[in-house]
Amino acid sequence: MKSFCSILFVCAFVFNLSLYSQNTLSEKDRAFAIKHLNESKAELLKAIKGLSEEQLNFKPSENSWSIANCVEHLALSENNIMGAVKKSLEEKPSTESLNELKTSDKELIDMITDRSSKVKTSKPFEPTNSFGSYEETLKAFKDRRKNNITFVKKDKINLRNYVMDLPFGKIDAFQGILFMSGHTSRHVKQINEIKSNESFPE
C-alpha cells in the first residue's frame, strides 16, 4: 500500500511540474528576450554617445524629429508598450486567440525594424519634452529599460499564453517584448539617418 501511495505521489509531482513548466516562460525565450533588450539598448547608447546639444536638436526638415525627439519617443514607448504587455496579462489565457497568431518572432522583428515603411505615431508616443531635459529623458529610458529587463528575468507567467491586439494583427505578450526592443532598433536606424544628413552639425 505504501509503495502504491509513493507511486501516486511521484506521478502527481511529475504532472504538476509539467503543468508548471507550461505556465512559465521557457528559458530559451527568456534568454533571447533579455539578450535582445540589452542589445537594442546598447545600439541606442552607442548611436547617441558624445553628441552635442546642437547635434541632438538638429532636424533634417521642419517636420522631422531630432535625435532628442527620438530618444524621448523611446522613453515614452518603454512605458506604453510594456503597459500594453502587462494589460494583456490581466485577461485569461485563450487557446482560441493563440491559434489566431500568424506572425513569427523573426517576422515581427523584421517588420518593426524595417524603415522602408514610415508610420505616424499616436499621441501618447509623441515627444513633447515631457521629461524636462535631454538628460532626464535618457535617464528615464535607461531606468525603464532596466525595469523591463528585470520583469522578463523574474516574472513567472508564460507570456506566450497571452494575446495582444495591434493594428497589424494579434501577437503574444512575449512578442510584445520583442516588439518593444525592435522598436528601439528601428529608431536607432532613424538616428543614424539623421547623423548621415549632409547638414548634420560637425
UniProtKB/TrEMBL annotation:
It comes from the Bacteria. Gene3D superfamilies: dinb family like domain. It comes from Zhouia amylolytica AD3. This is DinB-like domain-containing protein. Pfam families: DinB_2. Residues 37-191 form the DinB-like domain. SUPFAM superfamilies: DinB/YfiT-like putative metalloenzymes. The lineage of its organism: Bacteria, Pseudomonadati, Bacteroidota, Flavobacteriia, Flavobacteriales.
